[in-house]
């Protein structure tokens, strides 16, 4: 039986899948309708039907990227989507105005991007690994497309033209998949049926769709076929994508897009939630055991890239350049522990005119970094990198954070943070 297509989408992504999706981030394309671009053009274009502003497109696709790389689901994406729509005041999008319409539209955006990037990554993998045969497997959906069901078990050589038009997904919501085999015997073990043959008219266009029978209009191309070698090269270059916005890939993204993705990442409700939960895991809250520093499971939490605007402000404060390398804002295990140890005791913090720091406050770091009220140099420790101190007012409180410039590692790493309840966010040791 073929694997559950939703399970395929939500499992930890493989490098080629991430590379296939992020390749599209290099070229964000404004569109009025879903079919403004078609076929192989999708391999290199990032778009959201009806979205014109590049910052808006970057934020929405950035939310998809988080879902892809961090394994969050559709409901998390929906929450981010609502925040993005409100942020940009986007109106007139298909599905707006009703809960049913929003649920449908967000599912289409989310699932289409995840399934097509999965397919593009798989195509690159299958070709790079030298598979000789491909096996079409139906998703076994409750209400199947009869034509797709008829292809279940079909075995064809990888170079057969069928795959250029029929490689799934080949329709809206299609959950079919393909298996690679080195031999006919292996193809049979994977569920292939050597007796199943293509009809003579398999490539004949359906007058209603312009695509072969059984394929939805606009879906008669194998995702990623025009960029398979590029995807493979990007996957090798990027390694294991150690952070959700890996700097070694983002160097290839246009500056304006890169900045938009970074700020959108920090604005997202899902980023704030994930950062808070990560700190809770580090500290062993909610019944979990503290993470040992030598355990290589999310040893740090990225807060996204330093934007060109950020870099200019930091350069001015520190009187030194950050260029040409890109930098990440990072929170490491030790910094989270240190900040909570130093500023997490309620009684002591009250004597300092401060509130005890909590994991929730780490979730506010994105908002602070995107729009600090102040940014100035902080005291530098002997033998350490230069530091900046940032503040941001939240109601009656001021969040204060100190980051250290680690030039060799291309990071601005959190040193400590605290919450001031008075009017002046001055340092209190």
UniProtKB/TrEMBL annotation:
Protein name, per record: Phage Mu protein F like protein
Domain Phage-Barnase-EndoU-ColicinE5/D-RelE like nuclease, first and last residues per copy: 315-422
Protein source organism: Rhodobacter maris
Domain spans labelled Phage head morphogenesis: 59-178
Listed Pfam families: PBECR3 (PF18812), Phage_Mu_F (PF04233)
Origin organism lineage: Bacteria, Pseudomonadati, Pseudomonadota, Alphaproteobacteria, Rhodobacterales
């Amino acid at each position: 039986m073929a694997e559950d297509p939703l399970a395929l989408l939500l499992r930890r992504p493989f490098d080629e899948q991430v590379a296939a999706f992020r390749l599209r981030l290099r070229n964000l394309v404004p569109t009025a309708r879903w079919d403004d671009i078609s076929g192989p053009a999708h391999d290199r274009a990032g778009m959201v039907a009806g979205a014109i502003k590049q910052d808006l497109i970057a934020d929405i696709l950035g939310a998809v990227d988080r879902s892809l790389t961090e394994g969050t689901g559709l409901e998390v994406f929906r929450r981010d989507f609502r925040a993005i729509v409100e942020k940009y005041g986007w109106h007139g999008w298909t599905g707006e105005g009703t809960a049913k319409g929003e649920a449908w539209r967000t599912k289409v955006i989310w699932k289409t991007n995840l399934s097509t990037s999965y397919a593009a990554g798989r195509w690159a993998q299958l070709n790079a690994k030298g598979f000789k045969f491909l096996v079409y497997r139906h998703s076994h959906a409750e209400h199947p497309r009869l034509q797709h069901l008829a292809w279940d078990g079909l075995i064809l050589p990888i170079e057969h033209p069928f795959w250029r038009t029929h490689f799934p997904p080949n329709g809206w919501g299609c959950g079919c998949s393909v298996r690679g085999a080195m031999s006919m015997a292996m193809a049979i073990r994977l569920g292939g049926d050597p007796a199943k043959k293509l009809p003579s008219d398999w490539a004949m266009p359906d007058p209603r769709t312009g695509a072969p029978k059984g394929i939805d209009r606009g879906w008669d191309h194998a995702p990623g076929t025009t960029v398979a070698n590029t995807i493979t090269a990007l996957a090798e270059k990027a390694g294991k994508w150690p952070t959700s916005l890996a700097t070694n890939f983002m160097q290839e993204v246009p500056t304006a897009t890169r900045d938009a993705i970074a700020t959108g990442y920090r604005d997202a409700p899902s980023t704030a939630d994930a950062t808070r939960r990560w700190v809770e895991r580090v500290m062993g809250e909610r019944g979990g055991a503290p993470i040992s520093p030598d355990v290589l499971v999310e040893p740090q939490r990225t807060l996204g890239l330093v934007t060109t605007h950020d870099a200019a402000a930091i350069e001015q404060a520190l009187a030194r350049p950050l260029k040409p390398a890109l930098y990440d804002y990072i929170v490491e295990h030790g910094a989270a522990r240190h900040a909570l140890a130093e500023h997490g005791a309620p009684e002591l913090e009250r004597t300092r005119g401060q509130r005890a720091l909590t994991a929730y406050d780490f979730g506010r770091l994105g908002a602070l970094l995107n729009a600090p009220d102040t940014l100035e140099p902080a005291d530098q420790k002997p033998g350490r990198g230069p530091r900046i101190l940032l503040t941001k007012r939240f109601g009656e409180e001021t969040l204060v954070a100190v980051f250290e410039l680690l030039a060799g590692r291309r990071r601005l790493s959190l040193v400590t943070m605290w919450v001031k309840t008075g009017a002046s966010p001055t340092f209190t040791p």
